[in-house]
Amino acid sequence: MANRRCFSKKIVRSDDFIDLPATTQLLYFQLGMEADDRGYINNAKSVMKLVGCTKGDLEMLIAKRFVLVREEKLILIKGWRINNTIQPSRISESLYVDDLKSLFFDEHGSYTEKETPKPVLLTVCRQNDDNLLTQDNISKDKLIEDNSNKDNNLTRLNEIKANPFAKELTNRLINCEYINDSCLQLRDYINYFESLLNKQKDIIDIKVKLDYFIKTVCHYYPTGEKDYSDKPTFKFVYKNDRGIQDHYLYFVTSMNQSFSRSDVNDNEGDDLPF
Prior knowledge:
The chain is mostly helical. The chain has 13 helices and seven strands. The longest helix has 22 residues. The C terminus is likely disordered.
């Protein structure tokens, strides 16, 4: 669960929120800091005791629909997605995904128990188990956005003047979705591969180490396409279950370590009589 939380002015500067007593506003902020990555809190009473708020403050937040009661001792911050936008790859999945599947988003992007006919920000919260297991966003909009980002990466890659082999290797990282955001460091990946070529690294060796890196940090899933044996082919998809913060730094460090191990093994064989 993240250590940092955000609060939108659309909520905390609204007249409805400003009209709340100061202690009730305080409780809202503290609950926001305590919530999991989907907005759920299962220890509201402990938070109230910690900051000196009363049961009346919580009841006020419930009455004004700033928080929703989901079950006994479990509440949900209604405007969670307005306050916080967390990349799917960084979400620590909630323990309450079953409850999440019964919810929708209203026209403002807030959680609601009722299905809205024309949701603006996101579609309904119901998701299948596969989506939950892969920690996908609970809207199809995010899938569209991810595909758009990937297409943008490919377009930018084609626009960059670089060694074709370096671009081919960078494209592998895009295809496995390790590079899956706007990736302002796209040029850095190309430069790194070009530096390996300038150091006279063997092309096949670079490919082998890149493939090993991809297999290490990515997971397989079937593409639905068939090979000549009529079996589904599989594609690598990056899944951030390693807590990686700087993708480029992690990639370069991993590749360099791989080359270092190869150099050590090569030197160990220099004294052999063959």
